[in-house]
Amino acid sequence: MRLVGPSGEQVGIVPLAKALELAQEYDLDLVEVAANARPPVCKLMDYGKFKYESAMKAREARKNQAHTVIKEMKLRPKIDPHDYDTKKGHVVRFLKQGDKVKITIMFRGREQSRPELGFRLLQRLAEDVQDLGFIESNPKQDGRNMIMVLGPHKKKTEAMAEAREAQAARKAERQGQPAHADEAVHADEPADEAAEA
């Protein structure tokens, strides 16, 4: 077999007995890394440490992985202006977080005969958030509902990175200032007394 040493150096082609002897000498495991190669390749390593490091790398990769989420917002054609602003605020927040937003207009009764109301409402919402997102799928009627999907301009990973930076900045800002304003006043008093003396 072809043997690779603990620090990645090539030991050369050695018999199995010699490789096992070297493994015992270094107090390491003999691990086959390429079984299909001719001759097979084995490496001297601490297998437990190797598995642990692999698991940590996989966990870190999952942590940085972005999951695309589709958030849903439901509206009615005759929505109150204040309610519209609230719903628009939610859509803005979702788009800033890098999520797609599915907007559904629900029609009831005679409202179904006026689909243009829903269409105009969806167009208005798309114009209000055009700096954060774009229309990924145009409004289309689906039974009693009209559906439109908005996609964010920013990728989820970019949004997550910005959120982490903002959180770190807030944390640093909090640690740099005293917890209460009273503490800042009391911290100045001894210096004033020393100046008077």
UniProtKB/TrEMBL annotation:
<dbReference type="GO" id="GO:0003743">
    <property type="term" value="F:translation initiation factor activity"/>
</dbReference>
<dbReference type="InterPro" id="IPR036788">
    <property type="entry name" value="T_IF-3_C_sf"/>
</dbReference>
<keyword id="KW-0963">Cytoplasm</keyword>
<dbReference type="InterPro" id="IPR019815">
    <property type="entry name" value="Translation_initiation_fac_3_C"/>
</dbReference>
<dbReference type="InterPro" id="IPR019814">
    <property type="entry name" value="Translation_initiation_fac_3_N"/>
</dbReference>
<dbReference type="Pfam" id="PF00707">
    <property type="entry name" value="IF3_C"/>
</dbReference>
<feature type="domain" description="Translation initiation factor 3 C-terminal">
    <location>
        <begin position="69"/>
        <end position="152"/>
    </location>
</feature>
<keyword id="KW-0396">Initiation factor</keyword>
<feature type="domain" description="Translation initiation factor 3 N-terminal">
    <location>
        <begin position="2"/>
        <end position="61"/>
    </location>
</feature>
<feature type="region of interest" description="Disordered">
    <location>
        <begin position="155"/>
        <end position="197"/>
    </location>
</feature>
<dbReference type="InterPro" id="IPR001288">
    <property type="entry name" value="Translation_initiation_fac_3"/>
</dbReference>
<keyword id="KW-0648">Protein biosynthesis</keyword>
<comment type="function">
    <text>IF-3 binds to the 30S ribosomal subunit and shifts the equilibrium between 70S ribosomes and their 50S and 30S subunits in favor of the free subunits, thus enhancing the availability of 30S subunits on which protein synthesis initiation begins.</text>
</comment>
<comment type="similarity">
    <text>Belongs to the IF-3 family.</text>
</comment>
<comment type="subunit">
    <text>Monomer.</text>
</comment>
<protein>
    <recommendedName>
        <fullName>Translation initiation factor IF-3</fullName>
    </recommendedName>
</protein>
<dbReference type="InterPro" id="IPR036787">
    <property type="entry name" value="T_IF-3_N_sf"/>
</dbReference>
<dbReference type="Pfam" id="PF05198">
    <property type="entry name" value="IF3_N"/>
</dbReference>
<feature type="compositionally biased region" description="Basic and acidic residues">
    <location>
        <begin position="157"/>
        <end position="189"/>
    </location>
</feature>
